[in-house]
């Protein structure tokens, strides 16, 4: 660990050739260096990148960061932008998730751990998102004059959605189920727009301006959010 201008930087030595910097929420700075690189050289490198470190350090601190979930009763989870309390019930019952008023009820077998609870809830999110999205795809296909051949919903680390222009397929991040509907619709329109314009040039932006006039502010909000 080294400290430069009040910022703590975690140092990790690896079997690599080059030195790398990374900043993660909520502002954790890590430098990966070759096994034999001296601490003085590492400090010198980090000092040369101080402005970059400060910029991304502040950016990550500003993110809407949440600690890792344990999937236990009392935790707060989001669905369509609203907060819900998690209630876990263990017993000899069918595994399921039910939303009642302001509570997400998870029913699991006795002794099931964090991973199984997480998988069950993510499966529920995926099903709900697909159920919500399908009617809007049909509507937008008509409005935008596009055709989606296949919709996939899965968990992605760094993207809210993707589009395969050639195969006319779109993929949406399961995490979108936790966001307000206007954010979901923005991502959907964004990916559908790529069926018309493959890049992000002015033609693509014109399509977005036409079908999602508030897309810039919605994009900004999603960028603040952590997956």
Overview of the structural elements:
This protein has 227 residues and is an alpha/beta fold. Among the domains are: 2-61, no CATH class; 138-224, Metalloproteases ("zincins"), catalytic domain (Zincin-like). The chain has six helices and eleven strands. The chain has helices at residues 39-48, 50-61, 114-144, 181-193, 202-211, 215-224; strands at residues 2-4, 7-14, 20-24, 28-34, 76-79, 82-90, 96-100, 103-108, 150-154, 161-164, 169-173. The strands form three sheets. A four-stranded mixed sheet has the order 1-2-4-3, covered by helices on one side. Helix 3 packs across helix 4 (181-193) and helix 4 packs across helix 6. It is globular. The two termini are 27 Å apart.
List the SSEs and their pairings:
Layout: E1 2-4, E2 7-14, E3 20-24, E4 28-34, H1 39-48, H2 50-61, E5 76-79, E6 82-90, E7 96-100, E8 103-108, H3 114-144, E9 150-154, E10 161-164, E11 169-173, H4 181-193, H5 202-211, H6 215-224
Parallel strand pairs: 2-4, 6-8, 9-11
Antiparallel strand pairs: 1-2, 3-4, 5-6, 7-8, 10-11
Summary tags:
227 residues; 4-stranded mixed sheet; Zincin-like; globular; 38% helix; alpha/beta; 6 helices
How would you summarize what this structure contains?
With 227 residues, the protein is of the alpha/beta class.
Q: Please give the CATH class of the domain at 138-224.
A: Alpha Beta
CATH topology of the domain at 138-224: Zincin-like
What profile does the largest beta sheet have?
4 strands, mixed
How large is the radius of gyration?
Answer: 22 Å
Give the amount of beta strand, in percent: 25-35%
Q: How many distinct beta strands?
A: 11
What structural class do the secondary elements suggest?
A: alpha/beta
The N- to C-terminal Cα distance equals 27 Å
The strand order across the widest sheet is 1-2-4-3
Tally of individual helices: 6
| Second-tier CATH architecture of the domain at 138-224 | 2-Layer Sandwich
Low-confidence stretches: none
């Amino acid at each position: 660990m080294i400290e430069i201008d009040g910022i703590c930087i975690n140092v990790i030595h690896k079997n690599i050739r080059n030195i790398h910097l990374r900043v993660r929420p909520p502002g954790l700075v890590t430098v990966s260096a070759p096994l034999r690189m001296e601490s003085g050289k590492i400090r010198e490198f980090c000092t040369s990148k101080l402005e970059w470190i400060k910029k991304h350090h502040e950016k990550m601190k500003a993110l809407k960061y949440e600690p890792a979930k344990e999937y236990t009763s009392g935790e707060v989870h989001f669905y369509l932008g609203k907060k819900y309390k998690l209630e876990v019930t263990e017993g000899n019952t069918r595994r399921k998730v039910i939303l009642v008023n302001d509570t997400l009820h998870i029913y699991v077998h006795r002794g099931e751990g964090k991973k199984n609870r997480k998988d069950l809830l993510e499966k529920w999110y995926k099903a709900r998102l697909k159920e919500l999205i399908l009617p809007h795809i049909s509507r937008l296909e008509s409005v935008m004059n596009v055709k989606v051949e296949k919709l996939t919903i899965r968990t992605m680390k760094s993207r809210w959605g993707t589009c395969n222009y050639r195969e006319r397929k779109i993929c949406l991040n399961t995490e979108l189920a936790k966001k307000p509907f206007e954010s979901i619709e923005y991502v959907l329109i964004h990916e559908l727009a790529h069926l018309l314009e493959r890049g992000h040039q002015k033609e693509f932006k014109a399509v977005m301006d036409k079908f999602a006039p508030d897309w810039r502010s919605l994009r900004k909000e999603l960028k603040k959010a952590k997956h």
